[in-house]
């Protein structure tokens, strides 16, 4: 077995070392004639450090690199601390290895030294590629040919091997330019730049800075909107005036640091969209050739290193079936790298917000995340909390996809699997990459496309007080009961319009009308906006002479938690309480302390711990998450009306549901709890599920027992 590796960068060299570690012969084809000290700083997080440890390289990296103690996020203008992510020994305990900051040239040299001279050929630019059933052939620019059993393209975003496999493809510009510089330590005396990630964030711009050689060399990456740069040349230059102008309002320490940059070079931030395949026969891709990503999760080099280990392990096990081995390698890596690609783009969007209001929203979210995720596992764990050495020995289906779901997870029944797949494909990589804006559009698309309003049902825009709502009822709906419904979506996404089909079935269950409420969403409208809107909409029903005894509160997921919180607020205010509450998988504990949040993470296609943290923190921000009006699980439920709660076995919010039911029962509440098997999060929104039909029939009978029919037809707002 002989593997040809096109590209002698971090991915190519690590692949060569990993293959040799498995006893496989390699030849690295690198277009540069010699290694040169190019680039600036690079971050090697735990997921990559674990691989380098297996390859006996971690000790060398530790000798020349820096182990940062934390990531410190500060406001660019004021210097105020916004967020801190602990690293150092704490990160090593959490993730299995520490993070290292190192000069890119130092890392490449370490890797190159680990590959013997006979396994490297410099000045070898790939000009053409071909393959047959027995092997591959590479033609170099000088006309020489090289033959092997396998070719892996590690030749970066402009990969010649990728072009052979896929033809010309568009790359995308993120409209961000990055100034890079290295500063000797003696120029930074007195600035107190500790061995940390010293980061500053301002509107549309960031400073990512850290030591790359201990007390010797400091790395600067200053990213700015592309339109601010008018240089004729992007090469290394002593002209720093444009960079300094972009940071003329930076706080004194950051400004003083930038003024010590004597030479800068500039690069554009480019990426490609995730692809559905990067393998053909005996040829495959690795690293930036397969999944080029924006540099904002400390993940680009890490993903190349993960690729390298996986490729080597899989090929070593299946040397008698090279095409099959390459397809298995792709199957193991493509979902993981797609998730990181999307996550990195979402991080770029988040960290380069330009609108001041969105900047405040982002900073508020960070404040909230510090309360429930003090170790920053949600911010960075998706990239770092991954042991590829163990993963390469596990079944391929264990890998998490773009929405944090195990690829191999399946349900037993075809109808359950149908609902599972609808959730699984609700959010595309592009939706995730666009942050909460993309998630909102995707969620409404998912709901309105799959669950249209049935014929014979009217949905009319209305206002309950000053809160927008939709009034949903069958054309011949009798006078009677009213459902006040709150949609799900973690207080971040979702809409009343997306819940119209479900609202029609809720209205039918009470033989009356359903009002579904468009309460304000975070992060633009953090707590108490949602609960204020819920109170206002309920009081508006009372003002229309609809008695509380005829009102059923309903909600799914966050809406279920909001319905319970509403009753707490009404009781505190002395308002008449509704007749009953129906909550499907209520998000009732925004501290995420429920055991199912961790136990079933990766098994639930609708939600995962990272997403719930992001959503919850966006909502409560600087407020205390144990406040019962945020997390009603912590409230005094005595005196509550009858409560019907339901969830699916195996979903992450199962323990939010069961613990709420237990606390309510202990408080003397009449509780009905239904946990269904082999189903999905908020299963009642899926009308085709047998368990949905059974539950809605039970809810209808339960509502008849608990609601007192109202003889006044609900009135529209005047």
Could you characterize what this model shows?
With 718 residues, the protein is α/β, with parallel strands linked by helices. Helix content is 37%, strand content 21%. It contains 23 helices and 26 strands. Strands 19-20-22-21-23-24-25-26 form an 8-stranded mixed β-sheet, with helices on both faces. A 7-stranded mixed β-sheet has the order 5-4-13-14-15-12-16. α1 runs parallel beside α5 (104-113), α9 packs antiparallel against α10 (322-351) and α18 (529-543) packs across α19 (558-573). The radius of gyration is 28 Å and the shape is globular. The model has no long low-confidence stretch (mean pLDDT 95).
Feature tags:
718 residues, alpha/beta, 8-stranded mixed sheet, 7-stranded mixed sheet, 23 helices
**Strand percentage:** 15-25%
| Category by helix and strand content | alpha/beta
Main sheet characteristics: 8 strands, mixed
Main-sheet strand order equals 19-20-22-21-23-24-25-26
| Overall pLDDT score | 95
How many H/I helical runs? Answer: 23
Distance between the termini: 80 Å
Number of strands: 26
Task: Give the CA-based shape.
Answer: globular
User: Which spans of ≥5 residues are poorly predicted at pLDDT below 50?
Assistant: none
Rg measurement, Å: 28 Å
Estimate percent helicity: 25-40%
């Amino acid at each position: 077995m002989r593997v040809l590796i096109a590209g002698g960068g971090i991915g190519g060299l690590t692949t060569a070392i990993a293959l040799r570690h498995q006893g496989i012969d390699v030849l690295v084809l690198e277009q540069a004639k010699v290694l040169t000290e190019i680039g600036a700083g690079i971050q090697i997080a735990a997921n990559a450090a674990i691989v380098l440890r297996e390859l006996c390289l971690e000790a060398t990296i530790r000798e020349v690199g820096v182990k940062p103690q934390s990531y410190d996020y500060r406001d660019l203008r004021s210097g105020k601390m916004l967020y801190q992510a602990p690293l150092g020994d704490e990160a090593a305990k959490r993730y299995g290895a520490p993070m290292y900051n190192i000069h890119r040239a130092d890392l490449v040299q370490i890797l190159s030294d680990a590959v013997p001279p006979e396994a490297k050929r410099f000045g070898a630019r790939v000009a053409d590629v071909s393959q047959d059933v027995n092997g591959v052939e590479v033609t170099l620019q000088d006309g020489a040919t090289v033959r092997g059993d396998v070719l892996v393209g590690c030749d970066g975003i402009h990969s010649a091997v990728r072009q052979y496999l896929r033809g010309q493809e568009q790359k995308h510009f993120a409209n961000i330019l990055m100034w890079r510089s290295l500063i000797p330590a003696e120029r930074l005396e007195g600035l107190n730049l500790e061995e940390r990630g010293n980061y500053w964030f301002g509107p549309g711009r960031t400073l990512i800075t850290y030591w790359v050689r201990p007390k010797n060399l400091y790395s600067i990456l200053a990213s700015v909107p592309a339109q601010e740069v008018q240089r004729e040349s992007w090469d290394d230059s002593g002209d720093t005036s444009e960079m300094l102008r972009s940071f003329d309002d930076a706080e004194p320490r950051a400004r003083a640091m930038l003024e010590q940059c004597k030479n800068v070079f500039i690069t554009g931030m480019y990426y490609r969209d995730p692809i559905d395949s990067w393998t053909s026969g005996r040829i495959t891709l690795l690293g930036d050739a397969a999944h080029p990503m924006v540099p904002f999760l400390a993940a680009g080099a890490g993903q190349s290193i993960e690729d390298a280990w996986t490729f080597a392990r899989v090929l070593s096990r299946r040397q008698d079936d090279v095409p099959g081995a390459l397809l298995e390698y792709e199957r193991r890596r493509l979902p993981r790298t797609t998730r990181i690609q999307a996550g990195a783009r979402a991080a770029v969007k988040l960290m380069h917000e330009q609108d001041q209001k969105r900047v405040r929203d982002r900073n508020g979210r960070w404040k909230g995340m510090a309360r429930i995720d003090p170790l920053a596992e949600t911010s960075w764990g998706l990239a770092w909390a991954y042991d590829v050495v163990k993963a390469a020995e596990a079944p391929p289906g264990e890998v998490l996809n773009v929405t944090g779901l195990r690829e191999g997870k399946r349900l037993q029944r075809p109808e359950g699997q149908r609902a599972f797949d609808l959730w699984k494909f609700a959010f595309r990589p592009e939706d995730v990459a666009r942050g909460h804006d993309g998630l909102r559009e995707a969620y409404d698309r998912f709901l309105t496309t799959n669950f249209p309003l049935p014929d014979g049902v009217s949905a009319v825009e209305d206002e309950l007080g000053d809160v927008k709502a939709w009034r949903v009822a069958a054309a011949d709906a009798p006078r009677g009961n009213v459902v006040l419904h709150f949609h799900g979506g973690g207080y971040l996404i979702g809409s009343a319009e997306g819940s119209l089909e479900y609202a029609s079935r809720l209205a039918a269950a009470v033989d009356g009308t359903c009002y579904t409420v468009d309460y304000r969403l975070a992060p633009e409208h953090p707590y108490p906006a949602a609960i204020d809107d819920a109170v206002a909409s309920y009081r508006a029903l009372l003002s229309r002479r609809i008695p509380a005894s005829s009102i059923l509160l309903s909600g799914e997921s966050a809406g279920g938690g909001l319905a319970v919180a509403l009753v707490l607020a009404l009781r505190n205010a002395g308002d008449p309480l509704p007749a009953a509450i129906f909550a499907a998988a209520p998000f009732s504990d925004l501290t995420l302390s429920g055991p199912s949040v961790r136990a079933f993470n990766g098994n639930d296609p609708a939600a995962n711990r990272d997403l719930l943290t992001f959503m919850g923190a966006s909502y409560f921000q600087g407020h205390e998450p144990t406040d019962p009006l945020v997390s009603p699980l912590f409230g005094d439920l005595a005196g509550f009306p009858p409560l019907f709660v339901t969830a699916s076995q195996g979903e992450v919010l199962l323990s939010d549901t069961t613990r709420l039911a237990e606390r309510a029962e202990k408080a003397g509440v009449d509780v009905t709890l239904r946990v269904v098997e082999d189903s999905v999060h908020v299963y009642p929104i899926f009308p085709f599920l047998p368990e949905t039909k059974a539950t809605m029939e039970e809810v209808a009978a339960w509502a008849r027992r608990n609601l007192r029919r109202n003889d006044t037809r609900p009135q529209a707002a005047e």
